[in-house]
Write a structure and sequence with these properties.
The structure holds two protein chains of two kinds. Chain A is an alpha+beta fold. Chain A has six helices and five strands, in the order H-E-H-H-E-H-E-H-E-H-E. In chain A, helix 4 (108-120) crosses helix 5. Chain A is elongated. Residues 1-31 of chain B have low confidence and may be disordered. Chain B has helices at residues 2-24, 64-87, 114-118, 164-180; strands spanning 45-49, 53-54, 90-92, 124-133, 136-145, 150-160, 189-194, 201-206, 213-214, 222-227, 233-238, 245-250, 256-260, 266-271, 277-282, 289-294, 300-302, 310-315, 321-326, 333-338, 344-346, 353-359, 365-371, 376-382, 389-390, 396-402, 408-415, 418-425, 432-434, 441-446. The chains are: A alpha+beta, B alpha+beta. Strand 1 of chain A pairs parallel with strand 6 of chain B.
Amino acid sequence: MKRYFRILPLALLSITLVAGCGGKKKVEDMGGAAGAGTEVIPEEVTTPASTEVVSEDLGAPESMPPKYTGIYKELSPGDGLTKLAENEGRLYTIYFDFDKYNIKAGEKANLDLNAKWLKLNNGVKVRVEGHADERGETEYNLALGDKRARTVSKYLGDMGVSSSKLTTVSYGEEKPAVNGHDESAWSKNRRAEFMITD
Amino acid sequence: MKYAKTTLRLLAVVPFLLALCVALIPAGASAKVYIDLAAPANRRLPIAVQEFTYLGSAPQPGSSHAREIAEIKAALRETLLSDLNFSELFNIIPREAYVEDPALSGLTYNETNFSSWRVIGADTLVKGGFKVEGETLILEARFFDCVTEKQVLGKRYVGSTKNPRRLAHYFADKLYEELTGQQGIFTTKLLFVSDRDGNKEVFMSDYDGQNTSRVTSNKSINLSPQWSPEGSRVLYISYKRGTPSLYMLDLRSGRETPVSVREGINIAGRFSPDGRRIALTLSGRKSPELHILELGTFKDTQLTDNYAIDVSPTWSPEGKKLAFVSDISGNPHIFMLDLASRNIKRLTYNGVYNSSPAFSPDGRHIAYSRADNGRFHIWVMNSDGKDPVQLTFEGDNRSPSWSPDGRYIIYSSTSREKSMLRIMRSDGSGARTIKTGAGNEKSPVWSPYLQ
């Protein structure tokens, strides 16, 4: 018996609550036999007209750049870097350790050559693209790609390459160089690429 | 699991009171707790869902109208059953067992032979009928207690024939609320990223992965969608101008506006709980830092200033704190920033990689993903960083997002090189895959309540 006395005030309180809510309801419940109230379901909050949603269809102009191949000044007769620039419109790619954006000792030689080449061909503009491997999260990897692109750009700047020749973009994990789900693929995807744009 | 129990115990009081007060209004009736959320696994409520009856004049057999009616009839029942199943609170009695012939009985309590339902163990029963008038679909649905032979809930909904599932979700929400005292989540939605078209676009679906529509279709890379607190705007990253920038789409008008298109990265945008500000990461000319942008004035406040990565903020529900990811201590960990004092406190110390924090709707917990040896799993900790609990153990799991009632977490899960969306209870139990379509689906976010 005692239990009921403790519950009763709560129950009365909840009746008041329910009554209060009932007043706000738009719709009465249908009665037992005859329907009394009808609820009109509001228009769905969704993309109203899929074709209208994105008015701007710019394709992917920056992500698939034309290859700026051309004739460039050579570091030495027939050197590999100039061949790469002439044939593929890019310079040596620099690789990173997992979740790191410092330049590894083993990568410095190629980065130094990129710097030397850019100073020799000082009309060339380059877009530095920072990438991450697929491990980790989308947003963190975008930030990681940004750090990688900036770290190598700053290094090139310290080596005397004019900052006006360099732009950066991060692609995070969105554009792997190699498709694969093991360290051999990942190690090739943690990178900064140097694309000749002009 | 302590947190889940406490929450559920609190939730349990509400339906008890509701049931009690319902019982006290008509004198003499006995108190009935239909569903006690504190013990969802112990006893499921036996329920029968009769075939829905077409209430209009019978269509010509073989006509397209007859086919439409048959499809709507199937969709309404299938959706309701799927919602009831999802809640894991019901024991659905299969149709083969039903004795009462829908053609020979009515839809109301005095036209129902309750003993024929009790005989097959159906303590409760849903009956429904619908009408099609042009493109308008009218659904009448009733829920009966077969033991007391009373109608507990009766609703009539008017919607569109283009989306019969939506009417059934509305009824499921109401039914869930009637039986548990908690608002249902069956009319909520998901945003996610899919590569089904070859490139990454943002998609929207119902909470169950059905009824998918495109949010973006610009053929560049689109990432990391987020809901506004009222559910009518979507924020996302797009490369449509070449570099990662933030855009906002108003779902009602279809209008898209650039939110931040600056040098460097403009990513990780999150609406404040009042919908007026956006926390985001901008790198500008230096390093990825947290900022807050006022949406009306575009006034920008920088919150962090270091050479580390600061990314993926999540607002506390009252809007006073941001949990976020930083590698300032060497590798990615979760930190808490107090917006008034700007004090920053480290929350995680274990794991090699901690990321994508998500505040629970009640603000008491943070879900996140953590990797110890390459594979990510979903964890939940108290919002002060204490008592971390691992919730997933199979596959590779990331990007947790809470349902608005805090009872479920959706996340992306990769196994055999395919990424899909999964939903589990917030204590890690009952994980299941949500069928959204053909592509790799990632970065799911659960909408707020939409009605």
